[in-house]
């Protein structure tokens, strides 16, 4: 499933699942999930609209599991259109359009996965078309195994906090019936706007766990400590999180235990997840957990209720403003302060700092610049001058069955084109790369908005970020000791962010903007991590239940001889 048309796949940000067909250990438990995906009416901002529901829920049910658990998720698509966790050695079930066929209406698909060597806080969502704007998202919680030490005492309780921007407009056109007379009208919906080449307006509001202002609530007992697992599941906005009159201690970012710094507020960019601890050490009463937009054209705020047990007080005032709404320096300094706890154990007992990424020789530097432009009169977005267009066949299937002319291998250059006025070109572009190479990737943002980037199948070390243009001299400021490892990184306006990543996961992996309109309109591509060995040791075989579509509809058997060693 993708952390992303038939019901497309469900994507996850950003766990690395491992299909266990031949490798799961007998002692690891199985967890079964049966999901029915439908549409239903919701009104979180006071306007009735259709949403994607899972088992009738918005947000969808939480996946609560433990490191190495085997997960079997049977997804039934009851939508009228097609619909789709990231995977270790297994991009076959990554759940994006470049790897998976959509689940046809009225049919089902069973994901078989193992949460191999993973901990942390994540979320899933529908990845195809613009379904993400309609809901279908939910939390993923992967707990450490009992014998693996965690660098903080067990909290008294844990709460999931899914935050995100939201539109009152549906993601697709919908039909309205009016009382006392028969009529109808088609609403220009979000996906229609994008398909017609327009830009989306600013969001209408912010949701917390699928609810509007002061509708979500959390109860705590005075003197006890709690964990909040926070994910920004929205379409585009950077959100600032704070708890009225309480400080937060950051303890985990997307599966990495962090240095335990204390903050009064935290920026959570689109697609990012984190965990904080806080102590209920204030006088009994009600307080607000507030989220506010940052770096946005329109300021939005929303709150949830934090209630001390036994208190009957009510919220009588609106959420306080964010403050420093456009202060890039504040946010940049905060981002640099988030570092890996080198002595803490991750999913295994060995310390997180035992992997010395800073001493590995870089084998390739890739500079990726986002840009905006028009193609055939319509708004498009691009990476290094290339705006991605969907192919008629999933790229992974085309690669496996050696179907020609589906994608352009090498279609994305390693650096942006010279000059600022280069015309955009559109194609199903794939960047080729070698298994076990070690990359330096520099994201360059010459625009005035915050960018958020995600790479499926991997976590990356965020070694540096700064304002102005990147140069080779920028490497002198890299953090080569305790950079945080995560899968979604932000790039500030007219700034850069540098990451390092070991390509140890064979497959076809989506590298995309987490601004979903930009991703939908072309700001993405696929990274093909290739090895000629064709061994089960490096990549698992195509699943026996893999859906086939496009030019792979009638493909059967294997085009390759795979070794088990």
TrEMBL record:
It comes from Oryza meridionalis. Belongs to the multicopper oxidase family. Residues 37-145, 158-310, 413-532 form the Plastocyanin-like domain. CDD domains: CuRO_1_AAO_like_1 (cd13846). GO terms for molecular function: copper ion binding; oxidoreductase activity. InterPro entries: Cu-oxidase-like_N, Cu-oxidase_2nd, Cu-oxidase_C, Cu-oxidase_fam, Cupredoxin, CuRO_1_AAO-like. It comes from the Eukaryota. SUPFAM superfamilies: Cupredoxins. Keywords: Signal. Residues 1-26 form the signal peptide. This is Plastocyanin-like domain-containing protein.
């Amino acid at each position: 499933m993708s952390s992303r048309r038939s019901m497309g796949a469900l994507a996850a940000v950003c766990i690395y699942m491992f299909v266990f067909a031949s490798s799961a250990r007998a002692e690891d438990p199985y967890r079964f999930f049966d999901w029915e995906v439908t549409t239903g009416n919701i009104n979180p901002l006071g306007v009735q609209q259709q949403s994607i529901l899972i088992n009738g829920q918005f947000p969808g049910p939480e996946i609560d599991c433990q490191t190495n658990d085997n997960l079997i998720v049977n997804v039934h698509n009851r939508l009228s259109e097609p619909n789709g966790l990231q995977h270790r050695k297994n991009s076959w079930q990554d759940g994006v359009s470049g790897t998976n066929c959509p689940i046809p209406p009225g049919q089902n698909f069973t994901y078989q996965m193992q949460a191999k060597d993973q901990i942390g806080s994540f979320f899933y969502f529908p990845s195809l078309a613009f379904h993400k704007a309609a809901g279908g998202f939910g939390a993923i919680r992967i707990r450490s195994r009992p014998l693996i030490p965690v660098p903080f005492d067990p909290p008294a309780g844990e709460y999931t906090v899914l935050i995100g921007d939201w539109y009152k407009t549906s993601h697709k056109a919908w039909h309205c019936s009016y009382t006392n007379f028969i009529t109808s009208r088609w609403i220009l919906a979000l996906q229609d706007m994008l398909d017609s080449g327009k830009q989306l307006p600013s969001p209408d509001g912010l949701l917390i766990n699928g609810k509007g202002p002061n509708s979500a609530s959390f109860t705590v007992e005075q003197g006890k400590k709690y964990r909040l697992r926070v994910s920004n599941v929205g379409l585009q906005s950077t959100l600032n999180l704070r708890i009225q009159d309480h400080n937060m201690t950051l303890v985990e970012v997307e599966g990495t235990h962090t240095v335990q710094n204390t903050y009064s507020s935290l920026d959570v960019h689109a697609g990012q997840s984190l965990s904080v601890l806080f102590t209920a050490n204030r006088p009994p009463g009600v307080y607000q957990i507030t989220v506010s937009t940052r770096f946005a054209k329109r300021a939005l705020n929303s709150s949830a209720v934090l209630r001390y047990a036994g208190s009957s007080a009510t919220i009588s005032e609106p959420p306080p403003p964010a403050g420093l709404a456009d202060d890039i320096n504040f946010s940049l300094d905060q981002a640099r302060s988030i570092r890996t706890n080198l002595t803490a154990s991750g999913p295994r007992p060995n310390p997180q700092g035992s992997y010395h990424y800073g001493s590995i020789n870089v084998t390739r530097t890739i500079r990726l610049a986002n840009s905006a432009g028009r193609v055939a009169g319509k708004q498009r977005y691009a990476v290094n001058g290339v705006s991605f267009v969907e192919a008629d066949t999933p790229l992974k299937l085309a690669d496996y069955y050696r179907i020609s002319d589906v994608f352009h291998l090498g279609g994305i250059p390693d650096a942006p084109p010279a000059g600022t006025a280069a015309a955009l070109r559109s194609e199903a572009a794939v960047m080729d790369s070698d298994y076990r190479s070690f990359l330096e990737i520099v994201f360059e943002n010459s625009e005035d908005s915050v960018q958020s980037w995600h790479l499926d199948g991997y976590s990356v070390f965020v070694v540096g970020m700064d304002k102005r243009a990147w140069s080779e001299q920028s490497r002198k400021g890299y953090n080569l000791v305790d950079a945080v490892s995560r899968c979604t990184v932000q790039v500030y306006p007219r700034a850069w962010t540098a990451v390092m990543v070991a390509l140890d996961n064979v497959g076809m992996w989506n590298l995309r903007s987490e601004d979903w309109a930009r991703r939908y309109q072309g700001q993405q591509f696929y990274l093909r991590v290739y090895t000629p060995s064709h061994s089960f040791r490096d990549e698992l075989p195509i699943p026996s239940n893999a859906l086939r579509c496009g030019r792979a509809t009638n493909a059967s058997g294997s085009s390759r001889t795979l070794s088990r060693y």
